[in-house]
Amino acid sequence: MFENVKRSAIYVHFPFCLRKCPYCDFVSYDSSPVNRDEYIDSILLELGSLQKDIGVPLEAASVYLGGGTPSLMTPRQVEKLLDGIKRHAPFPADAEITIEVNPATAGEAGMAAWRSMGINRISLGIQSTDPKILVKLERVHTVEEGIMTYRFARRVGFFSVGIDLIFGVPGQSFESWKADLLRAIELDPDHLSAYMLKAPQGWEPPCEEELADMYTFTVEALEAAGLFQYEVSNFARPGYESRHNLTYWKMGEYIGLGVAAHSHMSWSNRPARSDSPHPLNKDPHQNNIFSIRWWNTPGPEDYINKINEKGNAISDYEYIDMEKSIYENLLLRLRLREGLDMGLKAFKSRKAIESVGAHLEEGGLASIEGSILKLTPRGLLLADEIAARIAASVSNGEGS
Is residue 16 located within the same domain as residue 161? Predict the structure, then answer.
C-alpha cells in the first residue's frame, strides 16, 4: 500500500537552447514553434494528471530544472513553474532546488529573482576556462561571461554554486587541461562536474592513456582543493553533493516532466487504479517486478498535444525485474565513491563478488574495506565494464 504522502525527486526538462552544441546527447532544440508558456502549462498538467494516477499526495524531495537551457525561461515563467509544482507536490523549506544555467543567458537581476523564488542551487555550464576549447565546443558564451555569471551567482546568495567542465576535447593536451582545471578551482565552487567528452563522429579525442592521466589528475587536484569525489564525474565540498542526482544513482524514485523526461517508481508502491491508462496501473503478470520506468515523447509539439489529449505523453515504459535491478544497482553503486556493499541480500553470492573484487584489487582498480567494494580513480574509468563483469559472475554463481 501507499504511504500517506509520496516523496519523489522531480525533474523538469526544458528542451530549448540558443544553439545546439555538437557534442550534446540530450534532447534539445535551437528552434521550435512551441510557445514556451504553453509548454510550461503542459508540464503542470502532466504533474497534476500523474498525481491523480498515483492517488495520494505528492511531496517533492528535490526539484531540478534541466535541459536544454532552462535559464532561457523568464523569471515569470520560472515562478509560474515552481508555483505550479508546489501546488501539486509541495516541497519542504530545506528541499534542494536546482537550475542549470548557460552563462550566455543569465544576468544578475534574473539570478536574484530565481534566488528569491527559493532556488538554492545553481549548476553553471562553464565547460571550459580556455577560449580555444569553447570555440571547439561551439559554446555561445565567452570565458569572461562564464566567470562573471559565476560571480553573479555568488553575489545573489545561492547556497550551492557548481560548475561543469569538459575534458578530452580534440586538440586538448594534458597540460592545457591541467591549466583549465586549476583556473576553475580558483573560482572556489561548492560543486564541480568534470565530464569526459563523448566525441561526435569525426572528432579525434586525446589517446586513452592521456585521457586516463587527465582523469587521475582531476581527482587528485580537486580533492587537494577540498572537492571530494562522490561519483565518477562529480566532486563536492562535504554537504554540497547533489541530493537530486544521488536519487538516480541510488535507484530512488523520481518523476520526470516534459519532453523526453524519464520517471522511475517502485512497483510495490504503485497505486491500484484500474480506471487509469497509465502503465503504473497495468499488471504485467509477473511476481518479481522491482520497479517501473517510463519516458516521454521527444517532440515538443507531440508532447503538448498528448498532454492535452490524455494527461500524459508517455512514449514507452519498462518493468524492471529483480535481475535487471541487481545489475543496475551494481552499475550505479560502483559509480559512487562510497562503493558497493557486497553483503546486500539481493546478491546471490557475496563470494562471487569478492572473487572478482580480489582480482580488481590486485590490478589497482578497486579496494575492499570490510564488505564494501570501492573502485579507485582508474577503476572508475572502467566502471561500466567492471559492473558487467561482476554481474555476470553473480548471475553464474561463480565463487559460491
Answer: yes
